[in-house]
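Course assignment 3, question 2. Fill in each field.
Student: A.L.
Task: Predict the tertiary structure for the chain below.
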Amino acid sequence: MPPLVIPSLVKLVLGAAGAAALVHWAVKEARRIGEEFERVKVRAVDPFRREALPTLRRDPATGVWRVM
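Answer field:
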């Protein structure tokens, strides 16, 4: 069986196609992760939930920090 010889132009085209596929995949993943972060961020900064959480405040009479 004779050795398989691939011309340089074909190698270049296959390399470019592979690089394009890799970039396409990376952009899709970056967008998906960004959308997921936005969804979590919107849920975490909900003002109604934030007001329900206890916070540390200094007691004016004693100066001690307390959960209020």
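Instructor remarks: The chain has two helices and two strands. The radius of gyration is 29 Å.
Grade: pending
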